[in-house]
Design goal:
- The protein has 160 residues and is mainly alpha-helical.
- The protein has six helices and three strands, in the order ααβααββαα.
- The chain has helices at residues 7-35, 39-49, 58-65, 69-81, 103-123, 130-149, and strands spanning 55-57, 85-90, 93-101.
- A three-stranded antiparallel beta sheet has the order 1-3-2.
- The radius of gyration is 19 Å and the shape is globular.
- It starts with 6 loop residues before the first helix and ends in an 11-residue tail after the last helix.
Length: 160
């Protein structure tokens, strides 16, 4: 039997969906206008700059971004043409490769980050009390824990 959302839950859920769509669109426009980067470009660059060495295996990057490998491959090809990233073979695995942040990619994210964080601060954090920020962090952690715990529940089973 389906457990439908009550009015309070539905209001929260639809509010979250509308907020997410508007926030993503605004962040995308800000990045594109101010730095020429798309939000997906920025997400890739953030993942690479968060590493001790600015490189990641493609499969690990796809998992971190929650993207299909084909989507990531196409996006990386576009970023590579713009000189933001490059690919390097993996010496320990002939079939694998690394995505590596280039100097141009580092410069791009360093130029984009201040405007991006200012927009996030203006649109999100400046509107919230410290208690709301704590609640938002707690909600995000709880939902992510559930997603992590049930990740295999939604994966297709390999065919025999």
């Amino acid at each position: 039997m389906t457990r439908w959302l009550d009015d309070h839950e539905q209001r929260a859920w639809r509010g979250y969906l509308a907020m997410h769509a508007k926030l993503s669109a605004r962040l995308s426009r800000q990045l594109q206008t101010e730095s020429g980067l798309s939000l997906p470009d920025f997400e890739v660059l953030v993942q690479l700059t968060d590493q001790p060495e600015p490189r990641m295996r493609i499969g690990r990057l796809a998992a971190a971004l929650q993207w299909e490998k084909s989507r990531l491959s196409h996006h990386l090809a576009r970023m590579q043409k713009r000189g933001l990233v490059c690919r390097e073979d993996c010496p320990s695995d002939a079939r694998g490769s690394f995505v590596v942040l280039t100097d141009r990619g580092r410069e791009a994210i360093e130029r984009a980050a201040p405007g991006h964080v200012a927009t996030v601060r203006d649109l999100v954090f400046d509107q919230l009390t410290p208690e709301q920020v704590s609640a938002l962090a707690s909600i995000a952690e709880s939902v992510q824990e559930r997603l992590d715990a049930t990740e295999n529940d939604t994966q297709p089973t390999p065919s025999a």
